[in-house]
């Protein structure tokens, strides 16, 4: 979990994945994500619905923000398949290229 303190003169730009959660711990945060504006008060949280860039700013005084790890897994984890032998070796591969 990442924690950040933002001041009104600092704009945070962060790439988010689906399920990434932002929580306002102290103060008030303004964020915009894909044309949607959200105001978070202390104790409130917001979850990214899809991949995108969020712009986050403290709206009055400083604010404290927690960035939780991805909470929702929307993609299946990669599973390696069994290694298939290459018949003919490198010479066959070179001829194919």
Mind explaining what this structure looks like?
With 97 residues, this protein is mainly beta. The protein has one helix at residues 89-96; strands spanning 2-6, 11-16, 21-26, 28-33, 36-41, 45-47, 52-58, 63-68. It has a four-stranded antiparallel beta sheet with strand order 1-8-3-6, with no helix packed on it.
What's a quick, concise take on this entry?
Helices cover 8% and strands 46% of the residues. The protein has 97 residues and is mainly β.
Rounded to an integer, what's the Rg over CA atoms?
Answer: 22 Å
Side-by-side strand order of the widest sheet:
1-8-3-6
Summarize the biggest pleated sheet: 4 strands, antiparallel
Backbone shape: globular
- Return the structural class: mainly beta
Number of strands: 8
Order of SSEs, N→C?
EEEEEEEEH
Beta-strand share of residues: over 45%
- Report how far apart the termini are: 47 Å
Highlighted features:
single chain; 97 residues; mainly beta; 8% helix
Helix and strand arrangement:
Layout: E1 2-6, E2 11-16, E3 21-26, E4 28-33, E5 36-41, E6 45-47, E7 52-58, E8 63-68, H1 89-96
């Amino acid at each position: 979990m990442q924690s950040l303190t933002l001041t009104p003169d600092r704009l945070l730009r962060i790439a988010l994945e689906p399920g990434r959660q932002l929580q306002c711990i102290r103060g008030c945060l303004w964020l915009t994500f894909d044309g949607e504006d959200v105001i978070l008060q202390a104790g409130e949280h917001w979850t990214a619905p899809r991949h995108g860039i969020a712009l986050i700013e403290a709206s009055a005084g400083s604010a404290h923000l927690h960035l939780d790890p991805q909470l929702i897994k929307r993609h299946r984890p990669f599973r390696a398949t069994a290694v298939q032998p290459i018949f003919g070796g490198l010479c066959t591969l070179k001829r194919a290229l």
